[in-house]
């Protein structure tokens, strides 16, 4: 039996992806070509926005959005501590300060009331994360941002295909950013996408991803002239382009997106049905008026359990060849943030309590009933072992 017999995640790759990748390889055009443009058009159309800018990762997309919005030293960005660390690192990249607020225990997204209270004259944006593909509160964040005349940046890296109150993930803020790492709903291997209705912001991000060159056919974004040379650079930019090969994967995956989302939803439903009677677990909550886009399946132990007990259960699952992980360690408790900002335990009690008890289970679109049963049975066994240890 292999250690990864039931891995934590698997990309959903079909023959169609292979065919499009081969098409690009045989074309001789491996960068800055038509496949990137097609991928951008497909994502923009799906999100109901006017512009999409493909890039090398979701992190790169968030970083460029920060730069394009003029966020820099002395500025504050209100965000969540319960996320992958990149959502806060990009604030540091820009020289600004992340201001964390605690989360809602149901959605696991930032508490809107606490976001409102955290806004100061130095606040230049709200960076809201759709934890695990759940878009709840995005409309509330948008209202708060509009009230205070600051942009909402939507980190929807985990939420492609989600809908909330009739709006698509990625369409709530001034800009949204998706990620396409191999464990996401769709993958380009590595890649990301900025989506926005703001043409100037989109063009600025197109320039930033390409070493600060002018956008082809548009001259200077600032309205001046440009030499039009490949070696003419208008601003400090980055090498954040995505390749044609990666974009080919993205096009094929977008053509299959609904199929992929249905398969992931079916796996989530199997877990929910199988775990519904386990009183020691809190299962993910799907908000009203929401079409969930399942990124991962992350239940959490009830409040009587400790981080150490959770960690031993994860270790036990792995020993039995079942992938599992802690999703997410709180960002403010990561060593770099503790050293930089002096955060201590108890700063954000709900996020810390949730983080100490979550465990991601194997999750991908073609899991069988047998695999889900094996995962849950092993989980129950590990839980029983912990309960026996308590009584010993």
Helix content: 25-40%
**CATH fold type of the largest domain:** Aspartate Aminotransferase, domain 2
Q: CATH architecture of the largest domain, please? A: 3-Layer(aba) Sandwich
**Biggest sheet, open or closed, and with what strands and sense?**
7 strands, mixed
Secondary-structure topology with pairs:
Blueprint lengths: L14 H13 L6 H14 L3 E5 L2 H11 L7 E4 L6 H8 L3 E4 L11 H7 L4 E7 L8 H11 L3 E4 L7 E2 L2 E2 L6 E5 L12 E5 L2 H11 L34 H12 L1 H19 L5 E2 L7 E2 L8 E2 L5 H13 L15 H7 L7 H7 L13 H23 L1
Parallel strand pairs: 2-3, 2-4, 4-5, 5-8
Antiparallel strand pairs: 1-9, 6-7, 6-11, 8-9, 10-12
How does this model look, in words?
Helices cover 40% and strands 11% of the residues. With 392 residues, the protein is α/β, with parallel strands linked by helices. The protein has 2 domains: 15-255, Aspartate Aminotransferase, domain 2; 257-391, Aspartate Aminotransferase, domain 1, CATH 3.90.1150.10. The strands form 3 sheets. It has a 7-stranded mixed beta sheet with strand order 1-9-8-5-4-2-3, sandwiched between helices. A 3-stranded antiparallel beta sheet has the order 7-6-11, with no helix packed on it. A hairpin with a 2-residue loop joins strand 6 (163-164) and strand 7. Helix 1 (15-27) runs antiparallel to helix 8 (244-255), helix 3 runs parallel beside helix 4 and helix 10 (307-319) packs across helix 13 (369-391). Mean pLDDT is 95; it is low at 221-226.
